[in-house]
Every structure is written in structure tokens, then in C-alpha cells.
């Protein structure tokens, strides 16, 4: 008689092998298709996140069904990881000095931008449904639940645009603060709404107090778990300065452990991840805070997977005309409510003008929490309005996930905050020697070219040094070609010779040229030449060998720091 186990093991092994192969293939398809969509939409001046979602729609439930619902469900851990990364990076933006400065402003805007759309959507939906059905109980119930759900704003699609366009300023700061907190308001509003609706139409929702206790348990439990892992990570990274690979490994390890614990005990992993990031940015040693750019550097593939799967989940063919009408009313009412609420809240707290004018553009996206609450409504009111709410939120998520990122881009662009979130390294990467040179014969802001002729006397050379801030000069021959360099230190040594030095010419004093740069040389390449050759200055020549001047390391440093000061001054102007 055959041993069943002997036959079963090869079958399991073969099945696992097929599944693993399919998984690798699917991930490859998702990444490739998503990256292609992001690139195409970016070329069209549309945020790349829209391209990810559109490509997901095409290969998912609404398109060619390359990703079937069971496959999408199996890939849910990717969404969990992506949301945790987003939460961690948002937490990194919530610095204590920012909260002290904008705390009251955040709370005012948060309450108005969350509660106002709930009132607007709830009222309009109730009226329209009553006019169509003449069933006031059904109308009020649907209005209350949709109003509560609409208050949530999706952090993922919003923050992805902020990162893509390198935004920085009061509007960006406010958006980070709002999207980090308004999910909690949505959960509380849903608790209140479902408690009112349950006795009206029936359902299996818990009472108000048990639901409220569960919410506070989720909120404070998540914050506690995230804070604990943040403290652990700060301890681990204290001794890992300049060891990027190990810091990144520990950071992702703690983040995933935190997420796993939250998933196991049914806590909110996004809130926990934000708490972890908040602890790191505010209480960890300053030198370990480089963990945030490290993590951010490796997030793009995860974001592509996440947003493609968001699009793949959406099925746009299951909406009836009546539900389609309610979905349109929901989107318009939510947009109107968010606009009125956020504008009024910003005006009330005397927020900067850019926040008052353009914050409504940045609060349209809806996803995770709204879908989660619609699923909860589908379970709590399965025999009445639950399925309708699920379909309406699915349809509206499809709409706002496409238009939301576009409006975020419009808002931050109009606010003048695009491209301001840059560091010295960013400026360096995008600059060349020609950017430091002002005109063909000027370097930085100096009034005369740092060039002498090979036949110039010592007196002429000393006079040139006295007129200029340069510590080094390039030497050219009568044809304008580069032949050497003279440094102030070298000149001091020559002066010690005595009277004989007065008869010396530049050609007698100069050092031969070994390294040169051209105007097109990038600043990172120039810095590499400085370091590799232990130089403080490098002569500049064009492609024909004509002398253009000399590039000093201190001059480049001055240029970079000047650019940073200019950007900070612009940010101060935006703040006021």
C-alpha cells in the first residue's frame, strides 16, 4: 500500500514551486506595468501615482483580469507594508517644534475639514435618497454612514505627490499633519453614525460605548506599540553611525515587527508606524535621523506595487445608475465640505494665505480607512444598506484616487512649494561648474577673473591677489592656454627668498597643471577630484584648452550654502 505522505510531499512541493514562480512573474508584471504607467503620466505632467492606479485598473477587475480578486487578496501584505512605510515617513515629518508652532492650527483645520463634509454629504445624500425612495429611515441611515466615512483622507496618494515634487513649506507641513490625524476623526464619526443607524434599520453593530472603547484601545494601543519600537530602534542605531546598510536593516526590521504585532492584535499599523517615526525624529540622537532618507530611498518599488493593487481592486462595472448618482453626489458633497471646512479652519487660526487658499486641493484622496469603514458597514448592515455603501465607496474611491493626486499637484504648485525640499546634496547633484561661474571670466561673485599671464611679474601677481578673494590663480600663456596654477601659500614661500624674488615671473613660480575641470563638469565630479587629489583648487578650461579661471572648493561650498539660504528665505516668505 502506498504511503499517502510519500505522494503528498512531492505534490505540495510542486504546487509551492508553481505558486512561487507565479508570484515572481506577477510581481514583475506589476512593477513593470506600474513603472511604465508612472513614467507615461509623468511625461504628461500628471502625478505618477495616477499612472500606477490606471495601470492597475487596466490589469485588474475592471480591465483585462490579469490580476484576479483571489490573487489581489493574496498580495494584501504588500499593501500593509506600503501603508506602514507611508505612516513611518509621515511620523518623521511631525517634529515637536512644528507641532508646537502649528498644533492649534492643525486641530482647528482637522475638526472643520472632517466634520463639515460629514454634514454636507449626510444632508445632501439624505435629501436625494428620500426624494427617490420616499423612505426617510433608509435615507437618513445612508446619509449618516456615508457622511461619517467621507471625512477620512488617504495619506498614501497625497504624500506620494509631495515626495515626488519635493515640496516644502506651510502648506506641505499642514497636509502632513492633517492626513496623519483625520482617520481617527473618521473612526469616531463612524462609531456615532452606526450607533444611531442600528436601532433605525437593524444590524449587528456594537453599542456606542463598546465601539468608542474599541476605538480608543486601537488608537492608544497603536501609539504605544509604535512608540516602543521607536525607542528600541533609537537605541539600536546609536552605535551605527555611517553604517547605512545596517541602519536600514534595523529600521525596516523594527517597522515590520511593529506592523506584524499590530496585525496580530488588530491594532492600526499606520498609526503605529507614525508613532515609531515620531519617536525617531524627536527623541533619537540627531545623527541617527538619517534613517528617514534611507528608508525613503528604497520605497518607490513598494509604492508602485501598492498603487497598482489599489487600481486592480476597483471594479467600475458593478455600479447601478442610482448608486452612480449617489456616488457623484458623494464626491461633489465631500469636495465642497472639505473645501469649506479646511478654508474656514485655516482662516479661523490665521494660517498662512497659501494654506487658506490651497489646502482644499490637497484633501480629496480617499482610500484605506474609507474602504475599511465601508467593509465594516457592509458587515454591520449586511441585510440592508451595507452592500450599497460598499459599492458607493468603491466607485468614489476610483474617482478621487485619480483626480486627488492631480489636485494635490495643482495646490502645491500654486502655493509655490514645489522643489523646495532640497538639501545641499540635492543642489550639488543638479549643478555644474558653469553654475558656480558667473560669466566666462567670472567665478562665483568675484569682480575679476582669477587668471594671470605667464610673463606677469611678482608685483603684478601680488596686486591681482590683493584685488580678489581667490587664494589660487590660473596661469595662461600668450595664446590663452592653461599652463599652471599659483597658490597664495606658494607665493608666501617664494617671498621668503628675498630680493631675488622680485625678478621672478609667473612661469617661474607656478605649479604645473595635473587636473582640470570644464564648465560642464558636475559638482559631484568636481568634489571627487578635490578629495582624490587632495586639492583645494582646480583650474577651469574649455574644450579647446582656453583658460577660464579656477574653481576653489571654498567657492563651491559658498555657492551651495547660498542656494540653501535663498530657499530658506523663500520658505520664510511663504510662511508669512
Strand element count: 6
Oligomer: single chain
- Strand residues, percent: under 5%
Order the strands across the largest sheet as they lie in space: 1-2-3-4
Count up the helices. 24
Radius of gyration: 31 Å
Helical content, roughly?
A: 55-70%
**Computed structural class:** mainly alpha
**Mean pLDDT rating:** 81
Which blocks of ≥5 consecutive residues have pLDDT under 50?
1-18, 439-447
Q: Compute the separation of the termini in Å.
A: 85 Å
Largest sheet: 4 strands, mixed
Topology pattern, helix = H, strand = E: HHHHHHHHHHHHHHHHHHHEHEEHHEHEEH
User: Shape from CA axes?
Assistant: elongated
Q: In words, what does this structure look like?
A:
- The protein is mostly helical and 576 residues long.
- Helix content is 69%, strand content 5%.
- It contains 24 helices and six strands.
- The chain has helices at residues 4-43, 48-59, 69-74, 76-93, 96-133, 136-149, 155-164, 170-201, 208-237, 244-264, 269-283, 291-297, 300-313, 321-348, 353-358, 368-380, 386-414, 424-429, 433-436, 458-467, 488-495, 506-509, 523-532, 553-575, and strands at 451-453, 472-476, 482-487, 511-512, 537-541, 547-552.
- The protein has a four-stranded mixed sheet with strand order 1-2-3-4. Strands 5-6 form a two-stranded antiparallel ribbon.
- Helix 1 (4-43) packs across helix 2, helix 8 (170-201) packs antiparallel against helix 9 and helix 8 packs parallel to helix 16.
- The radius of gyration is 31 Å and the shape is elongated.
- The N and C termini lie far apart (85 Å).
- Mean pLDDT is 81; it is low at 1-18 and 439-447.
Amino acid at each position: 500500500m502506498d504511503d499517502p505522505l510519500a505522494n503528498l510531499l512531492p505534490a505540495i512541493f510542486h504546487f509551492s514551486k508553481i505558486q512561487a514562480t507565479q508570484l515572481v512573474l506577477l510581481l514583475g508584471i506589476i512593477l513593470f506595468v506600474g513603472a511604465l504607467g508612472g513614467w507615461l503620466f509623468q511625461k504628461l505632467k500628471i502625478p505618477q501615482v495616477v499612472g500606477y492606479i490606471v495601470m492597475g485598473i487596466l490589469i485588474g477587475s475592471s480591465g483585462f483580469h490579469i490580476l484576479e480578486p483571489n490573487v489581489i487578496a493574496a498580495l494584501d501584505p504588500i499593501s500593509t507594508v506600503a501603508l506602514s512605510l507611508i505612516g513611518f515617513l509621515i511620523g518623521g515629518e511631525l517634529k515637536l517644534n512644528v507641532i508646537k508652532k502649528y498644533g492649534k492650527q492643525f486641530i482647528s483645520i482637522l475638526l472643520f475639514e472632517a466634520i463639515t463634509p460629514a454634514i454636507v454629504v449626510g444632508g445632501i445624500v439624505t435629501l436625494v435618497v428620500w426624494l427617490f425612495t420616499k423612505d426617510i429611515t433608509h435615507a437618513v441611515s445612508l446619509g449618516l454612514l456615508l457622511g461619517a466615512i467621507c471625512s477620512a483622507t488617504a495619506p498614501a496618494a497625497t504624500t506620494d505627490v509631495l515626495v515626488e515634487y519635493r515640496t516644502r513649506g506651510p502648506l506641505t507641513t499642514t497636509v502632513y499633519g492633517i492626513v496623519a490625524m483625520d482617520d481617527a476623526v473618521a473612526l469616531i464619526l463612524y462609531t456615532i453614525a452606526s450607533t444611531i443607524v442600528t436601532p433605525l434599520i437593524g444590524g449587528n453593530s456594537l453599542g456606542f460605548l463598546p465601539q468608542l472603547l474599541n476605538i480608543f484601545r486601537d488608537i492608544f494601543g497603536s501609539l504605544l506599540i509604535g512608540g516602543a519600537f521607536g525607542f528600541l530602534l533609537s537605541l539600536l542605531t546609536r552605535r551605527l553611525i555611517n553604517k547605512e546598510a545596517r541602519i536600514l536593516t534595523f529600521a525596516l526590521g523594527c517597522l515590520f515587527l511593529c506592523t506584524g504585532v499590530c496585525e496580530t492584535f488588530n491594532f492600526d499599523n499606520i498609526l503605529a508606524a507614525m508613532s515609531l517615526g515620531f519617536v525617531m525624529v524627536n527623541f533619537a540622537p540627531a545623527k541617527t535621523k538619517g534613517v528617514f532618507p534611507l528608508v525613503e530611498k528604497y520605497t518607490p518599488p513598494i509604492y508602485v506595487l501598492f498603487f497598482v493593487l489599489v487600481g486592480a481592486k476597483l471594479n467600475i462595472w458593478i455600479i447601478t445608475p442610482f448608486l452612480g448618482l449617489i456616488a457623484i453626489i458623494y464626491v461633489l458633497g465631500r469636495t465642497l465640505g472639505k473645501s469649506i471646512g479646511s478654508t474656514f479652519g485655516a482662516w479661523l487660526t490665521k494660517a498662512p494665505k497659501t494654506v487658506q487658499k490651497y489646502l482644499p486641493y490637497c484633501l480629496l484622496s480617499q482610500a484605506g480607512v474609507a474602504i475599511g469603514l465601508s467593509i465594516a458597514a457592509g458587515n454591520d448592515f449586511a441585510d440592508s444598506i451595507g452592500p450599497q455603501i460598499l459599492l458607493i465607496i468603491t466607485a468614489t474611491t476610483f474617482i478621487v484616487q485619480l483626480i486627488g493626486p492631480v489636485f494635490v499637484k495643482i495646490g502645491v504648485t500654486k502655493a509655490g512649494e514645489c522643489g523646495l525640499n532640497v538639501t545641499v546634496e540635492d543642489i550639488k547633484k543638479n549643478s555644474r561648474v558653469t553654475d558656480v561661474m558667473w560669466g566666462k571670466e567670472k567665478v562665483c561673485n568675484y569682480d575679476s577673473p582669477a587668471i594671470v599671464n605667464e610673463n606677469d611679474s611678482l608685483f603684478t601677481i601680488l596686486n591681482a591677489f590683493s584685488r580678489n578673494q581667490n587664494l589660487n590663480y590660473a596661469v595662461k600663456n600668450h595664446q590663452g592656454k592653461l599652463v599652471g596654477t599659483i597658490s597664495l601659500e606658494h607665493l608666501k614661500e617664494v617671498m621668503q627668498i628675498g630680493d631675488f624674488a622680485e625678478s621672478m615671473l609667473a612661469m617661474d613660480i607656478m605649479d604645473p597643471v595635473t587636473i582640470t575641470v570644464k564648465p560642464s563638469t558636475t559638482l559631484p565630479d568636481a568634489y571627487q577630484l578635490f578629495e582624490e587629489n587632495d586639492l583645494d583648487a582646480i583650474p577651469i578650461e574649455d574644450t579647446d584648452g582656453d583658460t577660464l579661471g579656477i574653481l576653489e572648493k571654498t567657492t563651491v561650498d559658498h555657492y551651495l550654502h547660498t542656494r540653501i539660504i535663498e530657499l530658506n528665505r523663500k520658505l520664510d516668505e511663504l510662511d508669512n
